[in-house]
Automatic annotation (TrEMBL):
Domain DDE Tnp4 residues, every copy: 111-270
Keyword entries, A-Z: Metal-binding
Compositional bias ranges of the Basic residues kind: 11-21
Region (Disordered): 1-21
The keyword Metal-binding is annotated on this UniProt entry: yes
Occurrences of domain Transposase Helix-turn-helix (ranges): 32-82
Cofactor requirement: a divalent metal cation
GO MF assignments: metal ion binding
Protein name: IS5/IS1182 family transposase
């Protein structure tokens, strides 16, 4: 990861400013922290959410140096994607990558959304109500996550405002196109994705519907067993989401909202690394 850090960060930072680079490569102020220290500082910040001023004191540098290091390394971690079990060097970065992997390995996917509480936007600003979640009754951002049958994280999206419906968030990421190109990949879902189940029968699998009132007792008992079996198959995804929420920054996001997507993808990639090496 040090190679793209040394070669690409300066170019990306200058491109964001909107102009061509006017000085020779390597010119300018030198980094006060070596790459390993910058990486360690970022991991500590992601895991425990220590303030930049505290990390600066630990590493003996200025707070702005730590802020710059975290901003650069977080982007690199987010761009890595999620590790693949039994495939060293292969990483999944898009939804199409995940479906292609599931098709090649003949595995069943689990998909669900989780919400992270964020700071309330200033009153009167346009679009502020987009983050109000109808389920959480809080300002949140929604992440869609896919895991395999063992609960290993395979992918997470770019995050959406909390007001967006779970199924709409999945459709926005292009899951309908993936179902068309990979008609043999099955995805286990919860009741929030009944619309996807209706549009993609036998591929988007949701819990069975409750029998109508007055149904035979045997049919009701069978429905309860089927629903419990579906929940048992999906529980591994809930464990994966719990692994993400153990990182303090995802318990409640108190920083700028536009930095949360990179942070979540970075943490998901780190969790996937640990899960395949466990």
């Amino acid at each position: 990861m040090a190679v793209p850090w040394q070669a690409g960060l300066g170019g990306r930072r200058h491109a964001a400013r909107g102009g061509a680079r006017k000085r020779a490569a390597g010119a300018g102020a030198r980094h006060q922290l070596v790459f390993v220290d910058r990486l360690v500082a970022t991991l500590i910040h992601l895991r425990h959410d220590l303030p930049h001023a505290v990390l600066a004191l630990l590493f003996g540098v200025d707070r702005s140096t730590v802020t710059r290091a975290i901003g650069e390394i977080r982007i690199l971690l987010a761009e890595r994607g999620c590790a693949v079990p039994d495939r060293p060097g292969l990483r999944l970065r898009t939804l199409a990558d995940v479906f292609a992997y599931a098709h090649a390995e003949d595995i069943e996917l689990r998909l669900d959304a989780t919400e992270i509480q964020v700071r309330r936007p200033p009153a009167g600003r346009g679009g502020w109500c987009a983050f109000v979640s109808g389920k959480k009754k809080q300002n949140t951002m929604k992440a869609t996550v896919i895991a395999d049958w063992r609960g290993r994280t395979l992918w997470t999206d770019s995050l959406r405002p909390g007001r967006m419906h779970d199924a709409t968030a999945a459709r926005t990421e292009g899951i309908a196109v993936c179902f068309q190109h990979f008609p043999d990949v099955e995805v286990l879902l919860d009741d929030g994705y009944l619309g996807l189940s209706r549009d993609h029968r036998e591929l988007a699998i949701t819990p069975p519907r409750r029998p109508r009132p007055g149904a035979l007792p045997g049919r009701v008992e069978q429905w309860e067993r089927d629903r419990q079996g579906h929940s048992s198959d999906r529980i591994t995804l809930e464990h994966a989401l719990a692994d993400h929420k153990r990182w303090k920054q995802l318990m409640r996001w108190t920083h700028r909202r536009d930095r949360l997507p990179d942070t979540y993808r970075a943490i998901a990639g780190l969790v996937s690394d640990r899960s395949i090496n466990a």
